[in-house]
Structure formats: structure tokens, C-alpha cells
Please model this.
Amino acid sequence: MIVTGSLLGYLQIFIFLVLIINALMLIFVQVYTFTNYLMTKTAIIVAGGKGERMQTSVPKQFLEIKGKPILIRTLEAFWNYDNNIQIILVLPSIQIDFWKQLCKKHAFDIEHLIVEGGATRFESVKNGLAAVVGESFVAVHDGVRPLVSNDTIKRCFDSAEKYQAVIPVVDLIDSIRETDETGNRAVDRNKYKLVQTPQVFLGSILKKAYEQEFSNFFTDDASVVEMAGTKVQLVEGNRENIKITTEIDLKIAEVLLND
Model:
């Protein structure tokens, strides 16, 4: 086949444009990767418990496990993962002075910012987000989950760089049943997961989601983000990462720490 000069010229231009596009895409990927590497990590620790289910006057997050308050163990878990992480602790205003006294008592000196919580968890997270400066990967974590593993925290942050909205889950072990006004029925437990924290999001996505009006459907941060239109990615959690809300939970946590 004879290729005319004009056609050859167009072909050369096409090849040149393809090479330019590929080079630009490579630069974009490198810049995006470097930006993610430089992007700060933030952990918002929400602790608003009152200790009612524990039947104690001391809020559950301040109860001790093997001589150390639950909340201190929780903050340590994130600092041990990354000692450069920004930690924002959200507490009810009436508990802030008590927390500061606990920190002095236990010589706890991990740097963290204290933010006053709201009337609901939704409002408390929103208050915490207001203290996040610039773009960041933001983890929201229950203050009474001190046994979250370093691997779980790392999986959530690492996956957030790709998916921007990530939550840790574990499989159901027990059989479950669905109930309604007509009765109850067995359901396939393989279709369900138990959700944990930290739930990690690109900060701008999470802030935008929390501009919504509160809904009773919002049981965690993932439900808020999902309602705003962002798909949530699941990653493996760790079964020890229990939420300590009852006396039995406290005893289980003590046993797990002994192991």
C-alpha cells in the first residue's frame, strides 16, 4: 500500500498526540500518588457515653481496663499506627475537665485537640469535622473501641486512598432473623456484615455529606456518606475490635488484653 505524504503526516501527528497523552497521564498518576502520600491523616474520636448501660456514674470511655482508661487506649491505638496523625477528640462539655485530670493522672501526653460535642453523635462528628483544616483522609472512630488493630487502621486508610470511602466489617457468626408486624423469619447471614470503626473518608466527601439534615437512618458515618451519593467500600476489620458498652464487654476486653 502506498502511503501519501499527507496521510503520513497525519499518522505522525496522531502518534505524537498519543505519546503526549500517555506522558500527561503518567504525570497525573505520579502527582496524584504523591499528593495522597503528602495528604494528612486525621482521626476524629467520638466519645459521648454516659455509662448508663454500665450502671456506673463514670462515663464508659473513662473506665479502666488493666489500669488504663479505655479512651486513652483508643487514642494510643491511632498514635501507634502513625505518630503524625492529627487526633481530634470530641467530648461532651461537662466531661472535658475530667478528661484533662485523667490525662495528668496517667501522664498521658499524646497531642490531641479537644472539641465540644453536640446533642447527638451526628452533631458531634460535625463539630469534629469543623476542626479539620485542609484536605485530609479522615477516620471517625468510636471512643470505646480501644482494641482496634494496627492492621485494621492501616487497611482503612490505605483503601481510602483508592476508594475514598471505606469501612471495616466482620462476618456474622450467629444465625439472625428478621422481624416485623407479621412475625419473624430466618435470613441468609452471608448477605450481612457487622460494621465497625474507624470509618475512613476523603475529608471533603465527609464534610459535604454532613451538610445534610439529620435522619434517623444515620446510624454511622457510612450511612451519612452513602445517602449523599458516595459508594462505600468494605474492608476486613478485626473481631477483637468490640464496642465496649456493657459490663460483659468490659470483661471480654480485659480477657483479650491478657492474651
Summary: DSSP finds eight helices and twelve strands in the chain. The first helix runs from residue 5 to 38. Residues 31-37 have pLDDT under 50 and may be disordered.
